[in-house]
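Re: the request from the purification team.
They wanted to know what the chain is likely to look like in 3D before they choose a buffer screen. I agreed to run a prediction and write the result into the notebook, where they can find it.
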Amino acid sequence: MFSWWRKCEYRNRLVQEDAAVLIARYGVRASYIAKRRAAMTRIAHSDRPPYHWKRVYSITRELLPYDDDEAMVSERANNSVTPVCGLPAIL
């Protein structure tokens, strides 16, 4: 009767486990990795449901207040790069 409840609990546990594994393996880059995996599940087949990596991403963002990649992107945007030979700068 409550098979949907067990399935929901199982999926929630998978999200928590994957978030913990990503944080343990990648540290501050865990949210970036989860975001990339969420984008890749649209392209490739995955053994996880489509929304799984989005939920992992939201959990890692809550647990990790600092994401190194976003800081680097904003730092690049703030730095002015002088073009060489009149060509536009490529970052």
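For the purification team: The chain has one domain: 3-78.
Please add any questions underneath this entry.
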